[in-house]
From TrEMBL, chain A:
This is Sugar ABC transporter permease. The keyword Membrane applies. Belongs to the binding-protein-dependent transport system permease family. GO terms for biological process: transmembrane transport. The chain crosses the membrane at residues 180-198, 203-222, 306-327, 339-362, 413-440, 452-472, 514-536, 557-574, 609-629. It is a multi-pass membrane protein.
From TrEMBL, chain B:
Keywords: Signal, Sugar transport, Transport. Coiled coil: none annotated. Pfam families: SBP_bac_1. This is ABC transporter substrate-binding protein. It comes from the Bacteria. The keyword Ribosomal protein does not apply. One of its GO terms (biological process) is maltodextrin transmembrane transport. GO terms for cellular component: ATP-binding cassette (ABC) transporter complex, substrate-binding subunit-containing.
């Protein structure tokens, strides 16, 4: 019974999803078909408009001649950049006082902007020798038609834009419900039949798996066959369109006496969005079988992968239900329902706010994502481990100058790592020392005004740390900063604090020291007050000195409180973004950058998101390693 | 029953509200962000008030954003439609915003020849990215020659004059120098670099850091520092300020930001940077930063926003911003106004801007700074020859740029 329910659920789920995918794919194919046919027409027109010089009466004549052979409900227009003109238009709204030629009105700004966008795209791609920006655009119209735009080039520069609006598209082919029902019910019936014959649970599961594979496989072959036929039909239609447009263009050229040289190149009309010929149709207007076969094979492998994925999902569902996994899970959830209800909101929060960004970041680190290609899909910009190799494989940390001094490469990962470690160690040392000393002072018996001191000393911690950081940055200002002011009061020369790596480092050290001691002080103070006074009394009776008391009683008693605080503080300091980012900004020339600020700069100043993600993942790795080692060590100390 | 009645009443109120909105014709409210403080802010607000008084249908509300977070705030808010309708910023981030998309609205469409001709041509160039105009230039900042009138009665016209004059005024033992500027800073070095006809990018944004012209310009700088010895060692900006204020530096290359730091006792003058004998008498051409008024792409009131931008950049507004805000307007008509023509500071920057080069606004520019600064440091510390150091920088920048473009 369980097996049957599992099979019907798994099969139903996968087939409904497959049906959805197929419908989507058919729609894409239909849109592509319409777009390609329309583009052939548009590019032929573009060619004629170019020959007609891009503007003037001859363009209007070409456009009206072209309109005659377009299907009813289509319209074309030509826009010239010089004078922001609507040169020619067969759109129904451009009549009477709005008839071409005229200047574009303010509501038509998007039109002009689109033209300029295409011009910039053509120029950019040409300059860079890449295909990075779309050179033609296609969008859906509210009435269900398509609006296509292509640039007009005269003498090598883009001077305008041609646009073609198609009539509403025919509804795309819908996958039949019959096939769905057949591939759903047939395996179910088979499996049900089997259940009467076979009594053993294990065999039944195997039978159901076979039924599932048969069902999904059967539907897959149905949908692949359908897609295949559609794609091939598209090629035939486009080829026909190409022949027709080519003839038509020749006729218009002869009629309007346009320059016949260079000869028309209809092969270029059927092109991708970067105006690179697709090659699926020959210039003569025949279907290029080899290219089409390759295209179909590519499509098939993509579709099979999607369907294979669906099948795997379905199999997982089937086995989960069939083997009794679901029953057990439901049982557990029902039994501990209060507990699950309580953690559910936190779990959702964690998934959305922590796990998703985390895994997204890791995925991004394997890509070459940057400012220019954010629109592309992840598979297109996948580079594998290249970012990691670039980061970890670069060992040019420093080189020797002529005069023997060492010049560091501040952008190198290992330099930054070294700086980060130095920064962490010095800061934690300062924090612990100052915090402990102050705690010891505050812990003196009978100290007057102790609450006042305590509040004053905790204040640096209570202030938002970016405010503190900005104040310290101001204090180290060369001209107006209070530090230089004091130096000058004693007759010294003020220092340009942010001009050398060492002095720059001192400024952040001071800032972070100021920020970190209160935490250590509070922790130590709490632990200090819990040490029984009798211990010291006994030590005094035994004649121990103050120092001996400190090392033998105070420090060991503080250890359980201090060790976790230090572990925490190391992680905080390692990732102390605010202080470095606000106080030194990495000056001079990235020498005081820690790993996190460097990663930020890679992402938002050098616009290399993938590289920055890899950088962050490396940082995560380092901290993970640290906490694992730290755990081992502290467990060992606890055991001792 | 009571609930129902309340609901009906509420619905009626809503309906009334809906009806009355179109009737009352609320003035359009536009928000403008800027990073100005003190007198600049006051001047801008004054101009905006004039606009609000003159245009009853539109109200512009300025908002001063602290400069440190300004650029990031625009990058984060504007593409999501949470930003202002207009914002004022320098051109250096323009390319990045355009490539990121949905941030800056192209305004070519609105521009007629009268508006285009209103501005100093190079400032308009700074607002243009890949052939499309994205903002109206408001003001510019440029490096020029600032000299102590007591020490330099007549400012030098050529680099030859500059060196002879500076040599006479230099006395290293007494800590006196003829010339002082942050020659290790690539931004300041740009004047020499562009003067020789060099630059950081060739056509198609291919980096050209190690071009022969750039090498020559660095060699000339090294000659000034080493052989002629007219420059102080390790020129931090604090050092330059204190030298100039103590009368120990006769001439300084710096921009308007330096003027505020000059002590009251120093009588200073401004003059264009000298021409370069070494480059066949061509002028030194510093980089300039141009602040523009941009319309944000998701704004609902682009037409009105453009009117504001146009108003802010016309002659009357430029005059207020120049005289009260102490900015150098990009509007060229305003310089024929007698009050502005008589202002030595504004006139000097206007003369200098004739030969200035807008700092590249392409996003690739952010990749230049670190390698270029490292190269300059290496050269000054004699760690490598100018050619070798620039070769290294070129390689680094080319790698970063190629990293962006890789398919």
């Amino acid at each position: 019974m369980r097996v049957l329910v599992g099979l019907s659920l798994a099969l139903g789920l996968s087939l409904v999803l497959a049906q959805g995918l197929l419908a989507k794919a058919l729609e894409t194919v239909a849109t592509e078909r319409a777009d390609r046919q329309a583009f052939v027409s548009l590019r032929a027109l573009e060619d004629l408009v170019q020959r007609a010089g891009g503007k003037g009466d001859s363009v209007r004549a070409v456009v009206s001649a072209w309109q005659q052979q377009l299907p009813a409900g289509s319209a074309v227009r030509v826009i010239a950049f010089s004078g922001i003109q609507l040169e020619a238009s067969t759109f129904p709204e451009d009549k009477d006082d709005r008839a071409a030629p005229r200047r574009l009105s303010r509501e038509e700004k998007p039109l002009y902007d689109r033209g300029q966008r295409l011009r910039a795209a053509v120029e950019t791609n040409r300059e860079e020798g890449t295909a990075r920006k779309l050179e033609v655009e296609a969008e859906a119209l509210p009435n269900g038609g398509r609006l296509l735009s292509a640039p007009v080039e005269v003498d090598g520069s883009v001077v305008g834009l041609v646009e073609l609006a198609t009539p509403p598209l025919k509804a795309p082919l819908v996958p039949s419900k019959g096939a769905l029902a057949m591939w759903l019910l047939l395996p179910l019936a088979l499996c049900a039949g089997a259940s009467f014959v076979v009594r053993k649970q294990g065999l039944l599961v195997i039978a159901s798996v076979v039924a599932l594979v048969a069902g999904v496989g059967g539907y897959a072959s149905y949908s692949l066959g359908m897609l295949d036929a559609q794609v091939r039909e598209t090629q035939t239609l486009v080829a026909g369109q190409l022949r027709a447009m080519s003839e038509r263009a020749q006729a218009v050229m002869a009629e309007r006496q346009l320059a016949a040289e260079p000869a028309l190149q209809p092969g270029n009309w059927d092109a991708d969005q970067f105006r690179r010929p697709l090659g699926l149709v020959t210039p003569a207007g025949a279907v290029n079988e080899a290219a089409v076969a390759a295209r179909v094979a590519e499509l098939r492998s993509g579709a099979s992968r999607a369907l294979g994925g669906l099948g795997a999902l379905a199999l997982a569902v089937l086995l989960f239900i069939g083997m009794g996994g679901l029953a057990r899970t439901v049982e557990t959830v029902v039994e501990h329902r209060t507990a699950y209800a309580y953690i559910a909101p936190a779990m959702v929060g964690m998934v959305v706010l922590v796990f998703f960004p985390f895994f997204y970041g890791i995925t991004l680190s394997f890509t070459d994502s940057n400012l220019y290609n954010t629109g592309q899909s992840i598979t297109d910009i996948w580079v594998g481990l290249r970012n990691y190799v670039e980061i970890l494989g670069d060992f040019s940390i420093a080189k020797r100058a002529q005069d023997g001094s060492i010049v560091f490469n501040y952008l190198n990962f290992y330099y930054t790592l070294f700086f980060t470690v130095v920064w962490t160690v010095t800061n934690v040392t300062i924090g612990v020392t100052v915090g402990l000393v102050l705690a010891l002072i505050l812990n003196v018996q009978g100290l007057a005004l102790r609450p006042v001191y305590r509040v004053l000393l905790i204040l640096p911690w209570a202030m938002p740390n970016y405010i503190t950081a900005l104040i310290w940055k101001g204090m180290f200002h060369q001209q107006f900063g209070v530090v230089n002011h004091v130096i000058r009061m004693f007759g010294g020369q003020g220092l340009a604090w942010y001009d050398t790596p060492v002095s720059s480092f001192l400024t952040v050290l001071a800032t972070n020291g100021w920020l970190s001691f209160p935490f250590m002080m509070v922790v130590s103070l709490g632990a200090l007050t819990s040490i029984p006074a009798e211990l010291y009394e006994a030590a005094r009776v035994d004649g121990a000195s103050r120092w001996q008391q400190f090392t033998a009683i105070t420090l060991p008693a503080l250890k359980p409180a201090l060790v976790p605080a230090i572990i925490l503080s190391v992680v905080w300091t390692f990732n102390q973004f605010n202080v470095i980012f606000l106080v030194t900004e990495g000056e001079p020339s990235n020498s005081t950058e820690i790993l996190v600020t460097q990663a930020y700069k890679y992402a938002f100043q050098r616009y290399r998101y993938g590289y920055a993600a890899a950088y962050s993942t490396v940082i995560f790795g380092i901290l993970l390693l640290y906490s694992v080692v730290q755990n081992r060590v502290s467990r060992a100390t606890e055991a001792a | 029953m009571k609930n129902l009645r309340l609901m009906i009443a509420a619905m009626a109120l809503c309906a009334l509200g809906l009806l009355s909105t179109p009737a009352s014709a609320q003035p359009k409210e536009l928000v403008l962000w800027h990073g100005y403080r003190a007198e600049e802010k006051a001047a801008l607000e004054k101009v905006l008030k004039q606009f609000n008084d003159a245009n009853k249908g539109i109200v512009v509300k300025p908002l001063a954003v602290p400069y440190d977070a300004y650029a990031d705030k625009i990058s984060a808010t504007v593409p999501r439609g949470k930003g202002p309708d207009l914002f004022i910023f320098a051109q250096d981030r323009l390319g990045g915003w355009i490539e990121a998309g949905n941030t800056v609205e192209p305004i070519d469409f609105y521009l007629d020849d009268a508006v285009r001709k209103r501005f100093i041509p190079t400032t308009m160039e700074a607002m243009t990215y890949r052939g499309t105009v994205y903002g109206l230039p408001l003001n510019y900042k440029v490096v020029t020659l600032i000299y102590n009138k007591k020490l330099v009665p007549v400012p030098p016209k050529t680099s030859g004059e500059l060196v002879t004059m500076a040599k006479k005024l230099t006395d290293k033992k007494a800590g006196r120098f003829g010339l002082a500027y942050s020659y290790g800073d690539f931004y300041y070095h740009s004047a020499l670099m562009n003067g020789f006809g060099g630059g950081v990018f060739g056509p198609g944004t291919t980096p050209t850091l190690n071009s022969p012209q750039n090498v020559k310009s660095v060699e000339l700088m090294m000659k000034w520092a080493e052989k002629d010895g007219i420059l102080p060692a390790e020129p931090s900006s604090a050092l330059i300020t204190s030298l100039f204020n103590e009368g120990k530096a006769a001439m300084v290359f710096s921009g308007p930001w330096f003027l505020g730091e000059i002590a009251k006792s120093v009588d200073y003058g401004l003059a264009p940077l000298p021409t370069l004998d070494e480059a066949g008498g061509k002028p030194m051409r510093p980089w300039m930063t141009v602040e523009g008024v941009y319309i944000s792409a998701p704004s609902q009131n682009k037409d009105a926003a453009f009117e504001v931008a146009k108003f802010l950049t016309d002659s009357a507004a430029a005059k207020v911003l120049a005289l009260e805000g102490r900015q150098s307007p990009a509007n060229q008509g305003v310089y024929s106004d007698p009050k502005i023509a008589g202002d030595a500071q504004l006139k000097a920057f206007r003369d200098q801007v004739e030969v200035a080069v807008p700092m590249p606004n392409v996003p690739e520019m952010t990749m230049v700074w670190s390698p270029a600064t490292s190269a300059m440091n290496g050269i000054l510390k004699k760690a490598s020859t100018p050619k070798a150091a620039l070769d290294v920088a070129q390689k680094a920048v080319a790698k970063d740029v190629a990293g962006l473009r890789k398919k």
